Amino acid sequence: MRVEPYVIETGRGRPVVLLHAFPLNASMWMPQREAIGTTHRVITPDQRGFGGSQLGHDDPSLDEVADDLAGMLNSRKIDRVVLGGLSMGGYVAMAFLRRYPERVAALVLADTKMGADSPEAAENRRRVASEVIAAGTSAQLVEEMLPSLLGQTSMERRALVLGRVKALLEKAPPYAVAWAQRAMALRPDSTADLAAVAVPTLVIVGEEDTLSPPEEAELIAKTVPGAELVRIPDAGHLTAIEAPAEFNEAVAGFLAGLPAE
Length: 261
Ligand code: MLT
Known about the structure:
Helix content: 40-55%
Number of strands: 7
Order of helices and strands: EEHEHEHEHHHHHHEHEHH
Number of helices: 12
Oligomer: single chain
Structural class: alpha/beta
Radius of gyration: 17 Å
Shape: globular
Bound molecules: D-malate
Largest sheet: 7 strands, mixed
Low-confidence stretches: none
Strand content: 5-15%
């Protein structure tokens, strides 16, 4: 059954939906709401179970999340959007694209991957899911995840970014973490869907991203016809948080070049 996501929304104009990374929430998009919200309607939902959104009772699947998103747009009477997602948000954007291609006017895929998990990666997600249910979002999980989410430069030089991401990780609700991990483990390969994309697409990657490294972004950019690739130096997996000015500049330039609807 559909969950009505909790949404933080700002600005007016063409709607831009931004989907957050795992295991964060829509608060990660604060710098984007501030910058892009001056020219666009920026809509940032909390994925099921995270932030202010209920988890619901459905079996884990990113298709459920995509359906939540479609329902959220219906309740706002919005037909087509510029759809952006970072990492897990990118996986959800791909699920949405598969289910509602006509509702996507343009795509932004940041620090994400188009392939499915290897059996080992899927198994590791299920292990984390069980552990987190048994023991909560432990300090150990936070310590394990932080260095992979942030680039070397942020780990060494951006104490505020580190503190902000750490606080978000510590607050991640265990059942949402488990649900999302199991849903991500089940996601299909999206190569064929991306090869069929016929709308403007921007691919962004942090040069220090080790979770979805630049080679993954290059693959996506080669697969989506006409896609543009922006590499952000001195940033890891969470480009939108680690290098917000560069991220926002790339997105603003992309948005400015879109054909009017
Ligand atoms: C994310 O940042 O959303 C996660 O790294 C995605 C993943 O675990 O594949």
